[in-house]
Specification:
Elements: H1 3-14, H2 18-37, E1 42-44, E2 48-55, E3 58-61, E4 68-71, E5 74-81, H3 83-94
Antiparallel strand pairs: 1-2, 2-5, 3-4
Length: 96
């Protein structure tokens, strides 16, 4: 599912015009991006938590040459699913 698909589904479930649903989706994603850029944690009950974590520089190997290389330090976005979401997914997999 992409951003447009999400907005269409939002419009369908809420009887909101598609244009308005696309605006709401864009604003929501913009707010999330801003808050993650500020290193804030975003928590949605029943869904999970988005957080930014620092990953320090670390050694690795070039797959093609086998040479040692250093992977630079960076920040990365992590999503941790809530126990409720994990149970829902697990339950649906077991019924297949």
């Amino acid at each position: 599912m992409n951003k447009t698909d999400f907005a269409i589904e939002l419009a369908r479930r809420t009887n909101m015009p598609r244009v308005r649903a696309m605006e709401v989706t864009s604003v929501m994603l913009s707010i999330m991006s801003e808050k993650l850029d500020e290193k804030e944690e975003i928590h949605f009950d029943g869904l999970g938590t988005f957080q930014v974590r620092y990953s320090p520089e670390r050694p690795a190997r070039n797959f093609h040459t086998g040479e040692p290389v250093m992977i630079p330090a960076r920040y990365k976005v992590i999503f941790k699913a809530s126990p409720h979401l994990l149970e829902e997914i697990k339950g649906k997999q077991e019924t297949k």
